[in-house]
DNA sequence: CGCATTTATGTAAACCTTTTCATTAGCGAT
DNA sequence: ATCGCTAATGAAAAGGTTTACATAAATGCG
C-alpha cells in the first residue's frame, strides 16, 4: 500500500503523475471520448495511485451549483416525515444530490437562518414541508430570486409552486364512504388544527361523501388539533351531548388513536360501540388496539415524486408549475364495524 | 425597491459601489475592528443596497471546509431517529453548520456512495448512527484520512471514535430493579437482533440487576429482533413452555408493544397477568393500552451532545476520544404491576 | 522636524475545478 | 509535397472568496 500522503491529492498531482495537463485529466473524467485511449489509461492509473477525488467545493464553485437540495420541514418529529424523507433521500442520492435538512419549528428566526443559508447558494433547490413560502426578508429584498421549489404534503395557497401530495379530498371521501357502506349515518369529523389547509380538504371530502350518499346530510365537525390529546379532548367534549355519532372520521391517526383511547376509558369499545377511522397509516397504526383502519399515504412515493420533479426542473427551470395528487388507499383493520343497532 | 439585478451580487459589486477594494469588504465583514468606522459604514450600505450574500462555495473552497456535517443512519424510519436528529439539527444550526443526511439501509453500495460524497470534501464531520465504521474502499486506499466522527447511540467495537448514547447497562439495570421491586422473581429478557451491541449491553444490565438482588439468579433470554413482530413471536414461542416468567424486560418499546399484543391476544392482560417494560420511550409508548412503562432515552440531548462534541473537535482534531453515557430515566406508566399471586 | 510605529487599505496569490481557445500533430486527398 | 481537416492536447481564464504581504497614511515621541 502506498504511503499516506499528507494531503488529499488534487488534479494537479494527477496531471503531474500522468504527465499530462490538468485539462486532460478533467476531460478524461468527464468527456472520455475526447481523450485518446493511451492517455486515458495513464490518467486512470494516476488517479488510482493518488486516490484522487475531485474537490466538490471547487467543482461547485466553478459550475455555479451546489448539488444539494434543502428540505425545510416544520418538525422533524412529524409522523409523516420519516417516510417522505426516505423517498426524498432515495432519489436525491440516486441522482447525485445531497440532502440538507432543516426544521423551522414554526420559528421565524430559524426559518430566516435557513433562507440565509439558501441565499448563499448552498442549495440548488428547496423542498417545502412547511406549508408556507419561506417567509423572510430576502424575498422582498433586492435579490428576490428563489431557487426552484416543490411543496410536499401541504399545499400552499396563492403561491405558484409545484405541489406533490396525497389527494386529501378523494381519500377522505373514500374513508367516509367506507363508514357509510358499513351502515353508519351519523358520522362526525374530528378536525385538525384550525385553519389547516389539509384539514379543510379532508373536511370537504367528508362532506362530499355524505352529500353523495344521503338526501339530507348531517355534517358534524368537532375541533381537534392533530394530536392524540386533541382527539381525546374532542371525544370528551362531544360526550356531554345526548345525541352522538356512531362513527368518527379523524383528521389523522394520532387524532384517531386519542379518540379511541378516550372512548375506551369511558368503558366503551371500538369498534363495537363506535367506529373510528384515521388518516395517514403511521407506522403504529397497526400496533394499537384495536388496530386502526385508516387511509394510507404513499409517503415514500410522495417523496420520490417531489424530488424527481424538483431535480427535473433544476437545469433550466422550464417545467411548469403542476400538482401531483397521489392516491390514498383504504387500509381496513379492526377499528371500524357496523353501527350499534340500538342507540 | 431597487430593481432586481440579473445575478446575485458578488463581493466585487460591493467593493465597487463602496469605492473600496474587495479585501476591505471582506475585512469589514469578518474583522470589523480592522477597518475604519467610515469605510465600514460605506461597505455596510453597499451590502444593503446590493443584497450581497457571500457565496458559500467560494468561501468553503478558500477556507478548505464545507460547514456541513453528514449524518449517516441505518434507517431514517428508526423510532429513535427523529428525536436524535432534532438535537443534532438544533446545535448544528446554532453553530452555523448544515446537516447532510444519508441513510444506508444496510446497503453497502449506498454507504459507499456517501463515503464518496465525504471524500470529496462535502462534509467536515460525520455523525454515525449506523453502529459501524463507514465500510468502504477509500478507507483502505491511499487517502485514509477520515473526517472527525462521533458515533451516536450505537457503540462501535474496536474503533477509536467518540461515542454518545444512553447508558444502556445502568438503564437496563434500573428497569429490571423496578420489576424486582414490584415483587417479580422470574423475569425474562426479550432481546434485540442477534449480535446487536446494544442488546448485549441491555442484557448485561438485566443480568446485573438479577445477580444483585438474588442469591441464585434466573437468567432467561428470549430472542427477538427489535420489531413488534419479533416481540410477538418471542411470546408465542415462550408460551409453549409450562413455566413462564411473570415479567418481561424488552430490548425496546417496539418489542414490548408486540409482546403486549401477543399476551393480550391470548386472552391475558397486562399488567395483571404479566408485566412488560420497554426501552426507549418512543412517542407512542404513552398511547398504547396499557400505556407502556419504559426507560426514556434523552434523544435530543444525545443529539445535542454528539454534535457539540463533533464541532468542538473540528478546528484542530485535538479532543481525545471519549464516551458520554447519558442517564436513562424510568418512566412509570401502566404496563407493570406486582406478579400474580398464583402461578 | 524627523524618525519609528501603528493603522488602514490595496494587490495579488491561493483554494481546485471546468472550459474556451489556441496549438500541434497526424492523416488523407490532391 | 502541399493543403485542409480532424483529433488530441495544453495554456489560461473564470468562478468568488480570504489573507499574506506591500504600501501608504497617520500618529507618537524625542
**Which CATH class of the largest domain in chain A?**
Alpha Beta
User: Largest contact between protein chains?
Assistant: A-B, 60 and 60 residues
Biggest beta sheet summary of chain A: 6 strands, parallel
Pattern of helices and strands of chain A: HHHHEHEHEHEEHEHEHEHEEHEE
Which runs of chain A of at least 5 residues are low in confidence (pLDDT < 50)? 137-143
How far is the N terminus from the C terminus of chain A? 81 Å
Summed over residues and divided by their number, the pLDDT of chain A gives a mean of 91
The oligomeric state of the chains shown is: homodimer
| Dominant shape of chain A | elongated
Please identify which CATH superfamily of the largest domain in chain A we are dealing with.
Answer: Response regulator
How are strands sequenced across the largest beta sheet of chain A? 2-1-3-4-5-11
Assess the beta-strand content of chain A as a share of residues.
Answer: 5-15%
Number of helices of chain A: 12
Rg over C-alpha atoms of chain A, rounded to the nearest angstrom: 27 Å
Helix content of chain A: 40-55%
Structural account:
2 copies of one chain form a homodimer. Chain A is of the alpha/beta class. Chain A has 3 domains: 11-54, 434 Repressor (Amino-terminal Domain), CATH 1.10.260.40; 66-166 and 299-326, Rossmann fold; 168-298, Rossmann fold, CATH 3.40.50. Chain A is 41% helix and 14% strand. Chain A is built from 12 helices and 12 strands. Chain A has helices at 11-18, 22-30, 37-50, 56-63, 81-94, 108-122, 137-140, 168-181, 197-213, 228-238, 253-265, 299-313, and strands at 68-73, 98-103, 125-129, 149-152, 162-166, 187-190, 221-222, 247-250, 275-277, 294-296, 323-326, 329-331. In chain A, strands 2-1-3-4-5-11 form a 6-stranded parallel sheet, sandwiched between helices. In chain A, strands 7-6-8-9 form a 4-stranded parallel sheet. In chain A, strands 10-12 form a two-stranded antiparallel sheet. In chain A, helix 7 (137-140) links the parallel strand 3 and strand 4 (149-152). The longest helix of chain A has 17 residues, at 197-213. Mean pLDDT of chain A is 91; it is low at 137-143. At the A-B interface, helix 4, helix 5, strand 2, helix 6 and helix 11 of A face helix 4, helix 5, strand 2, helix 6 and helix 11 of B. The first copy, chain A, binds a DNA duplex (30 and 30 nucleotides) through residues 10-12, 20-24, 26-27, 30, 34-36, 39, 54-55, 57-64.
Amino acid at each position: 500500500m502506498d504511503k499516506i500522503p499528507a494531503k488529499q491529492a488534487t488534479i494537479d498531482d494527477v496531471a503531474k503523475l500522468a504527465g499530462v495537463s490538468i485539462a486532460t485529466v478533467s476531460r478524461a473524467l468527464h468527456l472520455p471520448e475526447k481523450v485518446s485511449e493511451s492517455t486515458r489509461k495513464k490518467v486512470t492509473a494516476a488517479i488510482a495511485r493518488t486516490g484522487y477525488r475531485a474537490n466538490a467545493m471547487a467543482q461547485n464553485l466553478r459550475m455555479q451549483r451546489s448539488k444539494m437540495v434543502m428540505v425545510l420541514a416544520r418538525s422533524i418529529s412529524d409522523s409523516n416525515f420519516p417516510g417522505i424523507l426516505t423517498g426524498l433521500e432515495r432519489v436525491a442520492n440516486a441522482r447525485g444530490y445531497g440532502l440538507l435538512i432543516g426544521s423551522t419549528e414554526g420559528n421565524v428566526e430559524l426559518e430566516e437562518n435557513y433562507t440565509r443559508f439558501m441565499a448563499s447558494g448552498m442549495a440548488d433547490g428547496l423542498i417545502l414541508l412547511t406549508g408556507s413560502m419561506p417567509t423572510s426578508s430576502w424575498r422582498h429584498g433586492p435579490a428576490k430570486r428563489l431557487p426552484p421549489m416543490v411543496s410536499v404534503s401541504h399545499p400552499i395557497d396563492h403561491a405558484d409552486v409545484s405541489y406533490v401530495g396525497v389527494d386529501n379530498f378523494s381519500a377522505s371521501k373514500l374513508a367516509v364512504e367506507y363508514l357509510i357502506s358499513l351502515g353508519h349515518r351519523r358520522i362526525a369529523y374530528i378536525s385538525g388544527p384550525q385553519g389547516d389547509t389539509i384539514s379543510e380538504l379532508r373536511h370537504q371530502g367528508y362532506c362530499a361523501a355524505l352529500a353523495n350518499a344521503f338526501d339530507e346530510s348531517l355534517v358534524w365537525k368537532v375541533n381537534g388539533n392533530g394530536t392524540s390529546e386533541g382527539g381525546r379532548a374532542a371525544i370528551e367534549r362531544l360526550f356531554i351531548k345526548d345525541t352522538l355519532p356512531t362513527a368518527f372520521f379523524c383528521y389523522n391517526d394520532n387524532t384517531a388513536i386519542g379518540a379511541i383511547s378516550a372512548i375506551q376509558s369511558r368503558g366503551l369499545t371500538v369498534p363495537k360501540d363506535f367506529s373510528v377511522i384515521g388518516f395517514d397509516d403511521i407506522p403504529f397504526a397497526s400496533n394499537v388496539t384495536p388496530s386502526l383502519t385508516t387511509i394510507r399515504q404513499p409517503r415514500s412515493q410522495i417523496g420520490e415524486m417531489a424530488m424527481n420533479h424538483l431535480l427535473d426542473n433544476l437545469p433550466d427551470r422550464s417545467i411548469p408549475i403542476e400538482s401531483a395528487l397521489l392516491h390514498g388507499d383504504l387500509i381496513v383493520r379492526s377499528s371500524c364495524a357496523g353501527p350499534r343497532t340500538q342507540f
